[in-house]
């Protein structure tokens, strides 16, 4: 496995997300992940009431010798999410051959055993997707699940859940690489220009009392930029770089992290994505970890993981990046980050 499990949920898992059956689940998963999964194993964790979706976890589809380890990893995440049941979805790019060999049966067996060993969790279903079709690996009724499988739901007829996610802004990119590109560092002439701008605008953190005034001004500019982004206004390069540099002051950064407790953080996330693509090394780790925190608090573990990876490439010793990386690997639930943000806001007044 080359990719660790990255916990995700609905864009705001404070709202219950319930999915009717396999067709709806398969239609919603790309929007929950943010991209079309390929050669992947995805575990969807569920808990009462009514099979509420609490977390999705994706890994690269493992080779046979690593299936047991993969199943144990995913089952651990499911247990920590508070799930009582789970659905495994196996994505394989290769078409079904010979009229019916669907891949994933051995992984499903390992998954069932691993879930049972984690406090008696139940594998509710195991689905496999190949060549635009799907079938259940557990169903033996050919009237329900024919050997040739069933077609995936057409894009022009989305399920209610997928439609709701789309309205909330959940896009579907072609693959994980396309999602990585949305957080990629600038390159070429653009990188050189932005690096010069960073170096020109950078300044050391001021001591008190001047430092307190500057921090309040920096945070005020950040809040104003979030409100402007809510109206669709993208910051200029100079404004964006000033905000990137403001996050080097941990007091300002922590105040911004408190905003992750807000009911609607879509504008905050959009602004941080704007800042990430103008930030250059060695100035980029603070904004990337802030982006990772906000994405993770929203339930978007995939984006959080990508941001953490880039932050650690820039600064391997960055403490918040390392902390978030550990939390992602351990399957810490997004609600805990929101709770920390809310508690820090109460302390700061």
Describe this structure in words.
This protein is of the alpha+beta class. The protein has 2 domains: 22-173, Cytidine Deaminase, domain 2 (3-Layer(aba) Sandwich); 182-348, no CATH class. Helix content is 49%, strand content 11%. It is built from 14 helices and 6 strands. The protein has helices at residues 22-33, 67-80, 105-117, 160-167, 176-181, 188-201, 210-230, 237-246, 250-258, 266-276, 285-297, 301-314, 319-330, 334-348; strands at 40-47, 52-60, 85-92, 122-130, 133-136, 150-151. It has a 6-stranded mixed β-sheet with strand order 2-1-3-4-5-6, sandwiched between helices. Strand 4 and strand 5 form a beta hairpin. Helix 11 packs parallel to helix 13 (319-330). The radius of gyration is 22 Å and the shape is elongated. It starts with 21 loop residues before the first helix and ends with a helix. Residues 1-7 and 9-14 have low confidence and may be disordered.
Secondary-structure blueprint:
Blueprint: H1 22-33, E1 40-47, E2 52-60, H2 67-80, E3 85-92, H3 105-117, E4 122-130, E5 133-136, E6 150-151, H4 160-167, H5 176-181, H6 188-201, H7 210-230, H8 237-246, H9 250-258, H10 266-276, H11 285-297, H12 301-314, H13 319-330, H14 334-348
Parallel strand pairs: 3-4
Antiparallel strand pairs: 1-2, 1-3, 4-5, 5-6
């Amino acid at each position: 496995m080359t990719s660790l499990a990255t916990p995700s949920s609905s864009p705001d898992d404070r709202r219950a997300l319930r999915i009717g059956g396999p067709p709806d689940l398969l239609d919603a998963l790309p929007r929950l992940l943010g991209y079309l999964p390929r050669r992947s194993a995805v575990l969807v964790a569920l808990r009462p009431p009514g099979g509420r979706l609490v977390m999705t976890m994706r890994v690269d589809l493992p080779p046979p010798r690593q299936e047991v380890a993969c199943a144990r990893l995913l089952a651990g995440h499911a247990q920590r999410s508070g799930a009582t049941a789970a659905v495994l979805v196996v994505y394989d790019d290769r078409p079904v051959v010979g009229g019916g060999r669907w891949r994933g049966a051995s992984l499903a067996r390992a998954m069932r055993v691993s879930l049972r060993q984690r406090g008696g969790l139940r594998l509710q279903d195991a689905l496999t997707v190949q060549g635009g079709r799907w079938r259940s690996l557990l169903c033996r009724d050919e009237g329900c699940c024919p050997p040739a499988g069933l077609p995936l739901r057409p894009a022009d007829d989305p399920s209610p859940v997928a439609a709701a996610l789309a309205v909330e802004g959940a896009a579907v990119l072609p693959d994980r690489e396309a999602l990585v590109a949305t957080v990629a560092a600038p390159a070429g002439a653009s990188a050189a220009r932005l690096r010069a701008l960073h170096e020109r605008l950078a300044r050391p953190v001021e001591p008190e009392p001047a430092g307190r005034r500057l921090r309040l001004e920096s945070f005020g500019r950040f809040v104003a930029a979030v409100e402007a982004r809510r109206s669709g206004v993208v910051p200029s390069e100079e404004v964006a770089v000033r905000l990137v540099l403001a996050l080097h002051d941990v007091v300002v950064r922590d105040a911004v992290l408190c905003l992750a407790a807000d009911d609607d953080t879509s504008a905050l996330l959009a602004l941080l994505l704007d800042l990430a693509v103008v930030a250059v090394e060695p100035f980029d780790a603070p904004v990337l970890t802030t982006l990772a925190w906000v994405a993770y608090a929203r339930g978007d573990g995939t984006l959080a993981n990508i941001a953490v990876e880039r932050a650690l490439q820039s600064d391997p010793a960055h403490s918040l990046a390392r902390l978030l990386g550990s939390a992602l690997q351990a399957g810490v639930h997004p609600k805990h980050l929101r709770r920390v943000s809310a508690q820090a806001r109460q302390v700061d007044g």
